[in-house]
């Protein structure tokens, strides 16, 4: 049960200034204005954090409704797909805990309705396409199982004792699997009242055949009594229509029991057809939207068609769409006023018009629209309206003679099978007949039919082999021609520049100079590529060709070594499957762990994490540019000092290699860390987690490590300090532990057993990465006992610590963990990291097309995709949805895949910006707005380009900043530097120093092509279309404006909400470096102190080693949070929520800590606290 009132101040403090302004405006219009509206639209430009705005509105709405103790507060989040739901639900939760429920569809809400009644605040989400548009189909198996259990709840044995009911509902699923679906739903969890309502409606409703539904249902079920086989034909269709009718009734009953207070409609444009009263799902949707208590907040960067080209069908779509949207938001009267004033604007924009009348009409339009919507634009907030966008050429995009021969062969085949126009396919994808999936395109279907009937003309057209993928080349790892001008450009841009040599994207803020591939100038600035195409075959082609190209290059050296040694080289389709980083057991009567080197690599040692922190070394050296040998020298000295605490080992001739893994564990034991708790957690996770392929071997290795003190070790290896230094600086275990500690309270988190366990899970994910065949080939070592050293070298060269620190910082916000307890935060971040690292290569069906004896033969093969991935398949299933989710998580990590290819459809609202600022328009969209929408996927909050630029300008501040999270300090410094320059869009969305990183736009259009001409047209309209929003025949008006040469920029309709001044609570000592109470520590925030007087108490707060210190300036005292609780929160102490902004600093001359009552250190106003605190106290 959730009884926690949201902390509105804290939620708003986590937002940027322009987001707070939008929250205040939207909340006021929905809840507190005398003429409050029921619906309000936030139409901020793509990438500006509309989800965070929704979070702020939710917090204020729940707080506003809280004072009614009898009121249950339901927040309903409706989004277009489960991917967006997963991305955003944790970000929207403002009351803590994890009580948000994604029902996927309205018909599954009965599964959670009962839980809603027991909670004060509920978050429920579902998707409209599967909820409002129920249709007459049989739905998903879990829906049918729920229907069965709902009927069984009210009818009892009438349902459960007759097997016909289960047969009726099982659909196309096997009986055994459907019985498991039924068993997965506990009837006692269903809401009895809802089930009774459903039963009543079943008795009242009419069935699809015109009789009473209950009678039709019973008659159809009766026919399943003796049936053994799965129903097909007319009986199956009758059954599906009846199940569809039942699903409709469940959806209606669910809506009636939902009682929404606030409905969030995310990516509103995706389901605007629900506004049509004759649409199938309109009545269900309106039942949600028009609930008496419901307020509706709509989110969409493109709530209506923003721009319509004259050659598009129904050329005035924009105007009709715009007016219909305003009618939905504000009613017919407001829409009529807006239309009238827009006509006045248009009439006075052209020759002979009165500019004063146009301006007045614009002001009236802005006033009316701001009552029901607002919009902030990124580019409008920056002096350069191009923001950070730069157009770049995809080098290598050119045609070859082989491309033309491939076109000729493909065109000949198309003519033989009566499909004449295949030019766009050839221009977009290489090897179309090999890569098109069966049934995906008509040309592929007809080709398949021609092959099956032995069409000799088709065989003759393919006899040359032009444009066909030769499987024999793949099998022998021979170089493949990219096969297409655009693919040739992508291969040149990414693979030929060496990105295949990287296991991760180079860090934006390396703590020392990278080495190896990571030091190459052309790779240090590498960013992932996001590619959009109009054709579904393209993502598959990109994934296959790019992944094979990366793998083939990595295999060159190992294959050459095999041939030189006289061994048979590895073939593509029989690659080794045994991973080198194993938890091997030595066979025998008493199996025991083999080499423990893998465990030593992954072990999260607090001692090594402290001694080998490269950020700490950089601060000691005073530079971020030291080479790795210099860093290792510093750490080596620390390690040598620490090893004095351990026994020297037996004096033997042969060195004991067990020291490599045992020494860190012995050092941790010597420092009296809570080792037993950590090992118990690790063993329990090993027992329950099937992800670890080591199985019993993994647990055996852990048990041996747990007993490390009982080992009798021999002589130390001569290179022990060198190996331990490398492990301390770059070992996966140590790096993961430091990265999690940075975002969970600092150094004190290094020893917490739970955080160490989560670091171990991240390290196990890194093990999965280094066990992937393509990475094993990259590191070029076949000796398992030495491979761990190659892994360690790669981690050292690639500055793994900087990589994980940057990733952890990004995940805190992207996973909505700003307000989470530090242990929950660690678990969430570690889980996402492990998921990204453990992604498995996808397999893609590739047809080998050969001509033999005048006939075409097809053989199916499988090719892996790992370096590049496809996203957004046309055919979806639950398994596909899980895969897509994992692909998105992996792409939004620094790890592979480095290229993501997708169609534009369905990607609105998803983030792809965390490690990509390069977008490839494989095929151009027809509309300038769609162009911006695509690029908005990679131009978002703290995107990769922004982080690179902020680090380049302010990165060295980490040398003097003692903040636990170095990235928080860097962005704080950048924000201070940008203070007074406008909104918080700079530096968090736009930060463009000269020569810095930018959002890269690639358009691989061939010169003189129609595509190149279309691109020039898009370039002319992409910025100016905003001038003609709300106008009919936009292109005509835009052409006139462009030809007239008159500056009409002043006629833009500005819907930016008024800025909001931050309160003293939010500003704290200095708004630019605002210190909000950090919930990553063990202490949760507390309610305001009822005895305290904010006027009398002048205090400050500091983060001390991750803990909280409250300052009472009047009494000259400071207490920790624990002491604050013990003294009963008496008057004179802060309520820990923010107050008058007192400051604290150290008087180095007197050695005292001084508190200043106010934001300025006024002479004579300091109180000496006399606190015994370290010099590096961070506040």
TrEMBL record:
Kindly indicate whether the keyword Nucleotide-binding belongs to this entry.
yes
Any Pfam family: Helicase_C
Q: Name one GO molecular function term.
A: helicase activity
Ranges of Basic and acidic residues composition bias in the record: 1064-1073
Q: Which residues form the Helicase ATP-binding domain?
A: 11-327
> Per the record's keyword annotation, is Nucleotide-binding included, yes or no?
yes
Source taxon at top rank:
Bacteria
Keywords for this entry? ATP-binding, Helicase, Hydrolase, Nucleotide-binding
Q: Where is this region: Disordered?
A: 1059-1089
Q: What is this protein called?
A: Helicase-like protein
Q: Which species is listed as the source?
A: Sediminihabitans luteus
At the highest ranks, the source species' classification is: Bacteria, Bacillati, Actinomycetota, Actinomycetes, Micrococcales
């Amino acid at each position: 049960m959730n009884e926690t009132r949201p902390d509105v101040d804290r939620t708003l403090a986590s937002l940027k200034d322009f987001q707070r302004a939008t929250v205040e405006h939207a909340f006021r219009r929905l809840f507190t204005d005398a003429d409050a509206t029921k619906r309000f639209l936030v139409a901020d430009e793509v990438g500006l954090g509309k989800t965070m705005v929704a979070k702020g509105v939710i917090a204020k709405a729940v707080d506003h409704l809280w004072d009614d103790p009898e009121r249950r507060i339901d927040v309903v989040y409706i989004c277009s797909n489960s991917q967006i739901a997963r991305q955003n639900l944790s970000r929207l939760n403002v009351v803590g805990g994890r009580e948000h429920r994604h029902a996927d569809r309205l018909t599954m809400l009965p599964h959670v309705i009962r839980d809603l009644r027991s909670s004060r605040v509920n978050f429920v989400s579902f998707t409209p396409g599967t909820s409002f548009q129920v249709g007459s189909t049989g739905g998903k198996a879990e829906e049918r199982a729920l229907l069965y259990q709902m009927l069984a709840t009210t009818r009892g044995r009438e349902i459960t004792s007759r097997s016909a009911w289960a047969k009726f509902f099982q659909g196309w699923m096997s009986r055994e699997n459907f019985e498991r679906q039924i068993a997965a739903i506990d009837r006692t969890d269903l809401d009895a009242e809802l089930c009774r309502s459903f039963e009543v409606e079943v008795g009242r409703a009419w069935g699809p055949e015109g009789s009473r539904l209950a009678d039709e249902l019973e008659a159809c079920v009766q026919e399943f009594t003796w049936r053994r086989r799965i129903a097909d034909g007319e009986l199956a269709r009758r059954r599906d229509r009846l199940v569809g009718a039942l699903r409709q009734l469940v959806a209606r009953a669910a809506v009636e029991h939902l009682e929404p207070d606030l409905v969030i409609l995310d990516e509103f444009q995706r389901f605007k057809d629900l506004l049509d009263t004759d649409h199938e799902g309109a009545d269900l949707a309106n039942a949600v939207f028009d609930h008496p208590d419901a307020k509706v907040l709509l989110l969409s960067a493109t709530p209506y068609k923003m721009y319509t080209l004259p050659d598009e069908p129904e050329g005035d779509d924009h105007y009709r769409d715009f007016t219909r949207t305003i009618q939905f938001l504000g009613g017919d009267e407001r829409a009529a006023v807006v239309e009238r004033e827009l006509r006045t604007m248009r009439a006075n924009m052209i020759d002979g018009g009165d500019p004063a009348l146009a301006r007045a009409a614009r002001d009236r339009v802005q006033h009316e629209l701001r009552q029901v919507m607002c919009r902030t634009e990124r580019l409008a907030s920056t002096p350069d309206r191009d923001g950070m966008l730069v157009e770049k050429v995809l080098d290598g995009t050119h045609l070859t003679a082989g491309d033309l021969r491939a076109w000729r062969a493909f065109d000949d085949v198309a003519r033989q099978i009566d499909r004449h126009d295949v030019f766009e396919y050839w221009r977009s994808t290489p090897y179309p007949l090999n890569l098109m999936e069966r049934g995906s395109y008509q040309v592929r279907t007809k080709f398949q039919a021609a092959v099956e009937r032995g069409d000799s003309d088709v065989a003759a057209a393919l006899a040359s082999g032009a444009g066909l993928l030769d499987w024999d080349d793949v099998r022998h790892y021979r170089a493949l021609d990219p096969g297409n001008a655009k693919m040739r450009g992508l291969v040149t841009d990414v693979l030929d520049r060496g990105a295949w040599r990287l296991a991760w994207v180079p860090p934006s803020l390396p703590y020392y100079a990278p080495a190896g591939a990571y030091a190459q100038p052309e790779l240090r600035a590498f960013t992932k590529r996001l590619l959009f195409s109009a054709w579904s075959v393209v993502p598959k082609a990109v994934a296959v060709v790019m992944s094979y190209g990366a793998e083939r290059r990595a295999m060159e050296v190992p294959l050459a070594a095999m041939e030189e040694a006289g061994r048979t080289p590895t073939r593509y389709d029989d690659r080794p499957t045994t991973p080198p980083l194993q938890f091997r057991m030595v066979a025998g009567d008493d199996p025991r762990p083999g080499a423990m080197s893998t465990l030593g690599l992954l072990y999260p040692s607090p001692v090594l994490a402290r001694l080998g922190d490269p950020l700490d070394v950089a601060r000691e050296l005073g530079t971020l540019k030291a080479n790795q040998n210099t860093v290792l020298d510093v750490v080596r000295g620390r390690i040598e000092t620490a090893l004095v605490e351990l026994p020297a080992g037996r004096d033997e001739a042969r060195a004991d290699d067990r020291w490599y893994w045992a020494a860190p564990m012995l050092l941790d034991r010597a420092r009296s860390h809570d080792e037993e708790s950590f090992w118990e957690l690790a063993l329990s996770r090993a027992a329950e987690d099937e992800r670890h392929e080591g199985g019993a071997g993994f647990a055996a290795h852990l048990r041996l490590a747990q007993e490390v003190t009982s080992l009798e070790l021999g002589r130390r290896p001569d290179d022990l300090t060198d190996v331990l230094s490398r492990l301390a600086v770059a070992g996966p275990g140590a790096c993961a532990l430091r990265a999690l500690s940075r975002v969970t309270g600092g150094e004190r988190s290094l020893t917490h057993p739970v955080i160490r366990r989560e670091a171990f899970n991240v390290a196990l994910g890194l093990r999965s990465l280094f066990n992937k065949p393509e990475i094993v080939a990259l590191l070029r070592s076949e000796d398992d006992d030495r491979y761990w050293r190659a892994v360690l070298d790669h981690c050292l060269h690639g500055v793994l610590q900087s990589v994980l620190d940057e990733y952890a910082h990004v995940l805190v916000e992207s996973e909505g963990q700003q307000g989470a307890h530090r242990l929950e935060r660690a678990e969430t971040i570690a889980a996402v990291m492990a998921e990204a690292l453990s992604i498995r290569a996808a397999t893609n069906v590739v047809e080998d097309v050969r001509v033999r004896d005048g006939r075409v033969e097809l053989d199916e093969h499988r090719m892996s995709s790992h370096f590049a991935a496809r996203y957004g398949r046309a055919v979806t299933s639950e398994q596909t949805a899980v895969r897509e989710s994992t692909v998105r998580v992996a792409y939004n990590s620094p790890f592979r895949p480095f290229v993501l290819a997708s169609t534009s459809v369905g990607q609105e609202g998803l983030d792809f910006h965390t490690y990509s600022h390069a977008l490839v328009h494989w095929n151009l969209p027809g509309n300038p707005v769609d162009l911006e929408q695509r690029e908005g996927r990679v131009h978002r909050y703290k995107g990769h380009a922004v982080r690179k630029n902020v680090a380049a300008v302010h990165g060295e501040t980490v040398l003097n900043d003692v903040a636990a999270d170095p990235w928080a300090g860097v962005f704080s410094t950048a924000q201070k530097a940008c203070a007074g320059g406008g909104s918080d869009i700079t530096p968090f969305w736009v930060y463009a120093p000269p020569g810095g990183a930018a959002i890269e736009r690639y358009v691989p259009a061939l010169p003189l092509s129609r595509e190149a001409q279309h691109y020039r047209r898009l370039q002319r309209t992409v910025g100016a279309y905003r001038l003609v929003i709300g106008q009919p025949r936009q292109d005509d008006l835009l052409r006139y404006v462009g030809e007239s040469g008159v500056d009409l920029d002043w006629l833009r309709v500005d819907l930016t909400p008024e800025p909001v001044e931050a309160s003293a609570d939010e500003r704290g000592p200095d708004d630019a470096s605002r210190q909000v109470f950090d919930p990553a520590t063990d202490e949760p925030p507390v309610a305001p102190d009822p005895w305290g007087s904010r006027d009398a108490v002048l205090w400050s707060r500091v983060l001390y080693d991750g803990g909280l210190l409250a300052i009472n300036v009047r009494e000259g005292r400071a207490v920790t949070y624990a002491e604050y609780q013990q003294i009963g929160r008496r008057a004179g102490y802060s309520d820990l929520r923010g107050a008058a902004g007192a400051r604290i600093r150290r008087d180095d001359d007197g050695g005292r800590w001084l508190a200043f009552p106010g934001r300025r250190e006024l002479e004579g106003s300091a109180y000496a606290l006399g606190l015994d605190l370290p010099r590096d106290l961070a506040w």
